[in-house]
Design brief:
The complex is a heterodimer of chains A (156) and B (502).
Chain A lengths: L5 H20 L15 H23 L13 H21 L1 H13 L7 H22 L9 H6 L1
Helix pairs in contact in A: 1-2, 3-4, 4-5
Chain B lengths: L1 H13 L2 H19 L5 H8 L8 H26 L8 H12 L3 H35 L3 H17 L5 H14 L26 H19 L19 H23 L5 H15 L13 H16 L1 H7 L5 H12 L8 H4 L1 H22 L3 H7 L4 H20 L2 H19 L5 H23 L6 H4 L1 H18 L1 H12 L2
Helix pairs in contact in B: 1-16, 2-4, 2-16, 3-4, 3-9, 3-14, 4-5, 4-6, 4-12, 4-14, 4-16, 5-6, 5-12, 6-10, 6-12, 6-13, 6-16, 7-8, 7-20, 7-22, 8-20, 9-18, 9-19, 10-11, 10-12, 11-12, 14-20, 18-19
Classes of the chains: A mainly alpha (156), B mainly alpha (502).
């Protein structure tokens, strides 16, 4: 069998898998009856419905010819991985090292995802964004965000 | 007159110094993001949600609303000057607006767009004030069955009018509804789908989803595309005022656009985008012999859609304010903002928080007036902003999104979830799956389940209750009708053509 639309094939597959997973997962909870619907009633129905619709998308992707085959195209691995990693690193570092160190790391990392990277720009951007985040979030909105690393503040 | 009393209460609230400054702040920010391509109102509002913890509900919502309609103004500026619509709703403005700019009539195009939008904004505000109370009355007659059907209609409507495959869009809604099921069951108190992770028993924050899918998803896909060279068309934006002839040609289009936008904005799935497309089509049909043909710089092609998108943006607040049902992704975020501030969206908002309700409506008029002032004389400043390269811009977006997510609950779990949704968002982008229906489904999921289960409890498990109660049956029939109409072969072709013009 030949895939007629790449995009639809994969999205259909995702829908089916997620739908089945939710329907299956909801069997852990009480289903109840129509008169007394339990915790599993709604998600089970939704999961089944999603699996059916996903099946329709899959079926269409395998049978109906689409112009050019709707290719998925090149995946932008570089920005994708760098940005996702940068967010995760931010989550790891912020509670431990505080904003003053984490933000420059985040800015520099994400700047690497772009086409052009200049150290000077990244440094400038880091300084501007760190200072303005301090002004907006800590000084202005009075949000509780660690500013300095834990080992420094604990010592004092 | 109730209407006048209510409006005067609203203006009373809107004209306090604090609320004026938040309306102004929202309008400025909205214009800014409207001008900057690659940053839409959805991502911006999602970014700002954490900061509204520090604000009262009224100024917070006034600011968020300002961002939404401000973005419509800003988006048209870039559409006219550089042929890059800053917002999807100004795509059609670019067609004739850019041509006008090339003929040295940029000033006329900009002022017609701004004044048309202002007029439409004023009418939109009055329409909201006039129609909200009766709709609220109606909403109080709704039982759980009606609410469930209404949400079905709202969700279906939101995707029927969107572009792309209908089945895929409905699947995205279901995906959103399912993600909304990751929580603790309200009725029995069982944690569901949480994999014993304590953070998941409260459900995934919708800011996390919105930020991941819209904020970061957009950044990644923007970076994945080769950088386009933008030519800023600014060498002369002088002569801001339209000529008498321009004015005479533009005002009927503004009236038509306003009327069309006001109606379409209320529909589920409607709002600014649909209104502007519909208005352009209408203008092309109605204006038989334009002085300058459409596509070559016809002023009607700027005036109509601009008025329509602002009217639509304005009236799309109606279903959100009166029924608690968001018609588009921005309104979904507004519903979320209300929930954050402890206000249950729905018909009771008008009676329980009249200050908020009428103050918000009045602030829209105030904000629109501010926008005209911001946009016309200060146009030069906005143009300068266009020259900021994206490589300075996107790290800033990343920083604000990250801090925003972290401060939601002051923990890193939300940040990691956002990273996951950024990845998922890129997958959706690659697979051509619109993320907006997912967000709507996610917001409405818990409400829908509660109403479904309550309706079934009341009818003792009889599913026909949705069909035997007349209001509910009507709403479901309308939803079914929409699907059938879109499936009809002739309409289907037209719909594809309409969205290909983008």
């Amino acid at each position: 069998m030949k895939i007629k639309s790449q995009q639809d094939f994969w999205s259909g597959l995702i829908f089916v898998v997620v739908g089945v997973a939710f329907a299956f997962g909801s069997t852990n909870y009480s289903f109840g009856s129509s008169a007394r619907p339990g915790a599993a009633y709604f998600p089970f129905g939704l999961g089944v419905l999603l699996a059916i619709l996903g099946g329709m998308v899959l079926f269409k992707a395998l049978t109906i010819e689409s112009e050019g085959g709707d290719p998925i195209g090149d995946i932008a691995w570089k920005p994708l991985l760098i940005i996702v990693a940068a967010i995760a690193v931010f989550g790891l570092l912020l509670p431990r090292l505080g904003m003053a160190i984490t933000l420059p790391v985040l800015v520099t990392m994400s700047a690497l995802a772009g086409d052009e990277f200049h150290w000077k720009d990244a440094l400038l951007n880091s300084v501007i964004l760190t200072v303005s985040s301090w002004v907006i979030f800590i000084w202005g909105l009075k949000l509780v965000i660690p500013l300095w690393p834990v080992f420094l503040t604990n010592g004092s | 007159m109730d209407l006048l009393n209510n409006l005067s209460l609203g203006f009373h609230v809107a004209f306090t110094l604090q609320n004026l400054s938040y309306a102004f702040g929202g309008a400025v920010l909205g214009t800014l993001i409207g001008v900057l391509p690659g940053l839409g109102p959805v991502a911006t509002i999602a970014m700002l949600l954490p900061s509204i913890y520090a604000l009262d509900a009224t100024p917070a919502l006034i600011m968020l609303a300002g961002i939404y309609y401000g973005a419509q103004y800003g988006g048209s500026t870039t559409a006219i000057l550089i042929n890059v619509p800053g917002e999807s709703s100004s795509v059609v403005t670019a067609i004739d607006g850019y041509q006008m700019a090339r003929q040295g009539r940029a000033g006329a195009a900009l002022s017609v767009a701004a004044l048309g939008s202002f007029f439409a904004g004023c009418v939109g505000t009055i329409v909201i004030a006039a129609f909200a109370p009766p709709l609220t009355e109606l909403a109080f007659k709704f039982g759980p069955a009606e609410y469930f059907s209404l949400m079905v209609l709202g969700l279906i409507g939101a995707v029927v009018l969107a572009s792309g495959s209908l089945v895929k869009a409905i699947s995205m809604i279901l995906l959103g509804l399912l993600l909304g099921q990751i929580n603790t069951d309200v009725i029995s108190g069982t944690p569901r789908f949480s994999f014993d992770i304590p953070e998941l028993t409260d459900g995934i924050g919708f800011v996390v989803i919105a930020m991941g899918l819209f904020g970061f998803g957009e950044i990644i896909s923007n970076l994945g595309r080769p950088a386009e060279h933008r030519e800023v068309f600014t060498h002369d934006v002088k002569g801001l005022w339209p000529t008498r002839q321009d004015f005479m040609e533009a005002w009927p289009s503004v009236l038509r656009g306003t009327a069309l936008g006001s109606v379409l904005g209320v529909l589920p799935g409607g709002g600014a985008l649909l209104s502007s497309f519909a208005s352009y089509t209408l203008e092309k049909k109605i204006v038989r012999n334009p002085r300058i043909p459409f596509g070559k710089g016809a002023i009607q092609g700027v005036a109509g859609p601009e008025a329509a998108n602002n009217a639509g943006a304005q009236t799309s607040f109606i279903p959100m304010l009166t029924l608690g049902i968001p018609p588009n992704a921005v309104m979904a975020l507004m519903v979320g903002a209300m929930t954050i501030k402890g206000i249950q969206p729905g018909p009771q908002v008008m009676t329980s928080n009249p200050d908020l309700f009428w103050g918000l409506i009045a602030s829209m008029w105030v904000g629109n007036a501010m926008l005209v002032i911001l946009n016309l004389p200060l146009i030069g400043i906005w143009i300068k902003l266009l020259t900021v390269p994206y490589r300075f811009l996107f790290p800033a977006i990343v920083v604000f999104c990250c801090i925003g997510v972290y401060t939601l609950n002051n923990n890193s779990f939300d940040v990691f979830m956002t990273a996951a949704f950024a990845l998922i968002g890129y997958v959706f982008y690659k697979l051509n799956c619109e993320p907006a229906p997912l967000l709507l489904g996610f917001i409405l999921g818990p409400m829908m389940e509660e109403n479904l289960r309550r309706a079934l409890l009341l009818s003792r498990g009889d599913w026909t209750t949705f069909m035997t109660r007349p209001l509910s049956a009507g709403l479901l029939a309308a939803a079914a009708l929409m699907v059938i109409i879109v499936m009809l072969p002739s309409i289907r072709k037209k719909r594809e053509v309409a969205f290909h013009e983008e």
